[in-house]
UniProtKB/TrEMBL annotation:
UniProt cross-references to SMART domains, sorted A to Z: AAA
One function term, GO molecular function aspect: branched-chain amino acid transmembrane transporter activity
Annotated InterPro entries: AAA+_ATPase, ABC_transporter-like_ATP-bd, ABC_transporter-like_CS, BCAA_Transport_ATP-bd_LivF, P-loop_NTPase
Protein name in the entry: ATP-binding cassette domain-containing protein
Length: 231
């Protein structure tokens, strides 16, 4: 099993660093919840891992090999997938066509659908006609079909009711159980901590609670308050 490791990573945008000196280890088969208030730098950190933006300090490595100089496409080929904020579907394409973008063959689409039975019924519907929750299932299924080793998920629940998002959680768990390392950024902190192995808190661009078993954070009200509010 592989490990994605960040050591002392700093990400800068415009005037200066937005997140500094982050250490974390993402292991295949595990979920690491990254929580923190708005503007803490979570999105920027994920973007620096997948290569959307560069990092200005520290190192990012897979199994000890630095990927710091790799472009986004190389990181994607190495198995880093990134579900960015917002519903990244192609609305005018059908669900099948959306899945074929990563699944490549009909047989591969069928294989993915086995894990997403709710989508089976909507396979020939235009994605725009799906509910918000179903659209996010398409996004997850597409990521699933690309067979990543590491999956970065940035606030999939935006615009969804908690009850709708809760239907996505077993799918994310299934991802991890199949051997994917999932880095989960999520506004519904309690829900994220409920499925995570490990958790960490970023606040005002700094790690305020280092990576540790998620159970410790679940029971720490003061820490949770900080995770929500940055206070
Ligand atoms: N494209 C950009 N150019 C300049 N600054 C940016 C850019 N995107 C984000 N920032 C700034 O970087 C800081 C961190 O933002 P980031 O989106 O990474 O945090 P976040 O924790 O993901 O917050 P949110 O939950 O609101 O997305 C913020 O101060 C934000 O204003």
């Amino acid at each position: 099993m592989s490990e994605l490791h960040l050591s002392g990573v700093t990400v800068s945008r415009g005037a200066g660093p937005v997140v500094s000196d982050v250490d974390l280890t993402l292991r295949q088969g595990e979920i690491l919840a990254l929580v923190g208030p708005n503007g803490a730098g979570k999105t920027s950190l994920l973007e620096s891992i997948s290569g959307v933006i560069g990092h200005s300090g520290g190192d990012i490595a897979i199994d000890g090999e630095s990927i710091a100089k790799w472009k986004r496409v190389q990181r994607s080929r190495a198995g880093i997938a990134h579900i960015e904020q917002g519903r990244a579907i192609f609305p005018s394409l059908t669900v099948r066509e959306n899945l074929l973008l990563t699944a490549k063959t009909d047989a591969a689409v069928q294989e993915v659908l086995a894990s997403f039975p709710e989508l089976q019924k909507r396979i020939d519907s235009q994605a725009v006609l799906l509910s918000g929750g179903e659209q996010q299932m398409v996004v997850l299924a597409r990521a699933f079909a690309s067979r990543p080793r590491f999956l970065l998920i940035d606030e999939m629940s935006l615009g969804l009711a908690p009850v709708v998002f809760m239907r996505l959680l077993p799918l994310i768990q299934q991802f991890a159980e199949s051997g994917v390392g999932v880095l989960l950024v999520e506004q519904f902190t309690h829900l994220a901590l409920g499925i995570a192995n490990d958790a960490m808190v970023v606040s005002s661009g700094r790690v305020s609670h280092a990576q540790a078993p998620a159970a410790a954070l679940r029971d720490d009200e003061a820490m949770l308050r900080q995770a929500y509010l940055g206070g």
